Amino acid sequence: MELSATISSFLTHVKVEKGLSINTLSAYQRDLAKFEVFAKKRKLSLETVGRDDLVDFLAGLYRQKLESRTVARQLVTLRNFFRFAQAQELISSDPSINLESPKIRRHLPGYLRLEEVEKLLDQPDPKTAMGLRDRAMLEVLYSTGLRVSELICLKVSDLNSKVGCVRCIGKGDKERIVPVGKKALGMVDKYLREGRPALLRQAKTSSSSALFMNRRGTGLSRVGVWKILSAYGRRAGLRVALTPHMLRHSFATHLLERGADLRSVQLMLGHADISTTQIYTHVVEERLKQIYKAHHPRA
């Protein structure tokens, strides 16, 4: 079987059998498209790809100044691909089996200080429908720690104001229930009463079930949310460029700073492995060190 045909079969396999998210599938597709271009230049077939070819391919990524995390993800994609090809008996041996993963420098996630969060939340104009939507959206992001992909998929029916929680679908189509704070619920309620109906009238539609919608009456996109948050971040004069994930990092960091246990934070964030959540304990430790150095007379 040709390389391109095997790639297509592999992508179909991971989509149907593993139920991976759209973002993960897109990453697999991009990674394998890069490798296919490399293989064509070397006139390699699926059967002739060797370990040295993979080493050269990864070395080329480093020469492009890509981060070690990106190269590591590319290697994971190749491992999964060749493992699939071997399981299908398309190749006799896996050329990626003895390749070492690059060492990844651990970057502590960026987050906002509490006063910066308060300043950010004050930016949207609550006198307009769009302002009500944006304030409610910011409140929900900070109150729940949702991923942007989870936020844009929220429907009105997913929010339970009486219980004080929201239902969302995370990575791998896993459902979880996340608590929502009173301030966020209050702002969402006001948006549902005053802001969302106005947006529906402007869009001349009443069929959308999306909780947060755009001017056309359809659900917001990832890029749309990114642009909205970026603009409010600049308006608030934040020290760093604001991204949706930064509010997620702030949510987790502030919980741990105030004594929340790691397991509870893991469940709220929807992390499959608690080691992913543990990065936030390092953020808190670093914050404590900064406070100590700034205030202790003998620091």
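^ that was protein a. below is b, sequence first then the tokens
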Amino acid sequence: MGILITGGGGFTGSKLAEKYFQRDERVIIFDLAFSDELIRSASDKIILVRGDISNWHEVFNVIKDYSIETIFHLAAMLTVPSEANPWRSIDVNALGTYHVLEAARILKVKKVLFTSSIGAYGVTQDTVVTGQTVQRPTNIYGISKVFGELLGLYYHRRFGIDFRGVRFPSLLGPGVKTPGVGQYNPLVIEAAIKGEPFEIWAPEDTVIPMMYIKDAVRCLVMLNEAPADRINTRMYNVGQITPPPTAADLVTVVKQFYPRAGITFKPDPAVMEILKTIPRVITGDEAEAEWGWNIAYSITDTVRDFIDEFKKLPGV
């Protein structure tokens, strides 16, 4: 018996695995590659299985071999690599989700938890995104996430799988490597810690909905543990740090800890076009009402804890 985390070698997945390991749960991490730190942590409680989510044989085998009861399906290609190779993105994000759900049906997995994104909306920055906002994404990443959401809801209705999911905002934490327009948020903090100058490629008034990684992990754990009779919506928006900080607000907080941080702004016109499609506000009303979700980390709490955690990273 165990918990399977697809994409568990990534930023969020590895933090989620660590949380369950601390609870003495058996965690199986399924991914294409693993960090040296994860490899060192491998044991009879954290099992690393190399595999490709787009290969259904490998997905079925890992679920069958380890008698999986709960799946956290985090494996995905994000926006930038998906736009660079939309064909591969369909294989990973769309077909990979189908493989997980079909394996769960056949092998009688009790629960599948799915991570989606605000990228599943495709709205303007002036839109206040709620659980009722119409989803019309224009890039392949967002399209594939909507497919995964709807397919999961179908498998719940048709086959009784306990499917639950969240749409995360941008996740902020130390050590993120994935490229993206919002990655100035963690990188500007890391640069300040290291005493390096940093040029933010977005305007000072930019707002990208975000959440600290520790809140994201706690969110997934809470959703997993929520009683079945409290789960009605099934696909939840989970809000953002409030009040929504601008890029300038973030710099102000960083400078509370590093007053001499060399941070400047040089907006990139290409980035500014992308920002027009990212909403500034996303609510989490249904998650709060149904299973008591709330965000714990303010922007100041986030920066403070980020600094502490970054200093613990190997080689820092």
